[in-house]
Amino acid sequence: MWSVWKVCSSPVSYVLVHSPDLSPTALPRSMLARDKSLESYEACRQLTAEYSKTFYFASLLFPMEKRRAIWAIYAWCRRTDELVDSLDFKADPRMLDRWQERLDKIFGGGGEDVYDLALADAVRNFPLEIRPFLDMIEGMRMDLTQARYENWEELHTYCYRVAGTVGLMSCAVMGLVDDCPEARRRAVALGVAKQMTNILRDVGEDARRGRIYLPLEDLRKFGYSEEDLFAYVVDERWAALMEFEIARAEAIYLEAEKGIPYLIPDARWPVWASLILYRRILTKVRSNGYQNFLQRAYVPRAEKFLLLPVAWAKAQT
Length: 317
Ligand SMILES: CC(C)=CCC/C(C)=C/CC/C(C)=C/CC/C(C)=C/[C@@H]1[C@@H](COP(=O)(O)OP(=O)(O)O)[C@]1(C)CC/C=C(\C)CC/C=C(\C)CCC=C(C)C
Ligand SMILES: Nc1ncnc2c1ncn2[C@@H]1O[C@H](COP(=O)(O)OP(=O)(O)OP(=O)(O)O)[C@@H](O)[C@H]1O
Ligand SMILES: [Mn+2]
Prior knowledge:
- Helices cover 72% and strands 0% of the residues.
- By secondary structure, it is mainly α.
- It has two domains: 34-131, Farnesyl Diphosphate Synthase; 146-312, Orthogonal Bundle (Farnesyl Diphosphate Synthase).
- The radius of gyration is 20 Å and the shape is globular.
- It starts with a helix and ends with a helix.
């Protein structure tokens, strides 16, 4: 019966075949005790599941070895992000120097806790390069010194560092049929498009932390001031500004889509799924009437499930 489902590789059969992984503990305790690295991956799985519904959901569509490596990368990225979020503005940047030294240790095969060890194992199993990890730390450093971005070029640098880098890390795990500059550029584009989506979703949250991640020159273009933003003014100027940024993000998603055929086939469905689900947040910002200061745009769970077959169909073409 199971093999029949396996032969028929549709989204429904996939979810059924892999359904044990949707249980609260994906790996049996006996296995965890036997293999230290499995225990480490299990910790990363739990962290991913706790922090991101979208990425956890998409990660379940990968074969097991890639899935685990993605959890390890997610855990490292999430902890890097949390480290900076927990620091005050202009906090001691030496925290990040220390985090960077720890990264060197991971790439040397060691680590200080289970999450580090999982990533060290992933580094052994996949051709991960240290550069994107270092660039992400640089992106987090920007958050300690900068709370405004003058233009798109500046913001793009930030988006590459904190999110485009994830695209490069992911490619090393997922595998490219042709590892060419275009494929890498498009992988970076997907990270940048998601970061722009994240910025548009979280404008209010960022404002409460005194931050504006929208290019100031764009605010000026629409006659919308920083004071308007901190007063949560939603009017036709704000709507026009939001539409402008949404269009920019959507154009980058289109560039990224063209990179998916460069991925090894078993990675295409999860990447399409994560692209479609995350891009959908933009539609929600719009349908919320651009009320993104106090209202969080999100894709309900049922809708996420309904979009899975759409992603699967895209991945077959
Ligand atoms: C497909 C898949 C499952 C990908 C990998 C998941 C992964 C390792 C994600 C790490 C994300 C992370 C914690 C990054 C730290 C910085 C940060 C927070 C970036 C933002 C992510 C969104 O997180 P969230 O909405 O939870 O944010 P909050 O903290 O809750 O506000 C980002 C928007 C960046 C995400 C970027 C990616 C997942 C890169 C996508 C690119 C690819 C998978 C490459 C595909 C390849 C080709 C050739 C197209
Ligand atoms: N364990 C946690 N501790 C602190 N914050 C969390 C935790 N889990 C989730 N969050 C945060 O709670 C908020 C609610 O998240 P939301 O409902 O949008 O889902 P999500 O898991 O963040 O999905 P997505 O992957 O699409 O970002 C987010 O800001 C998320 O980062
Ligand atoms: Mn989140």
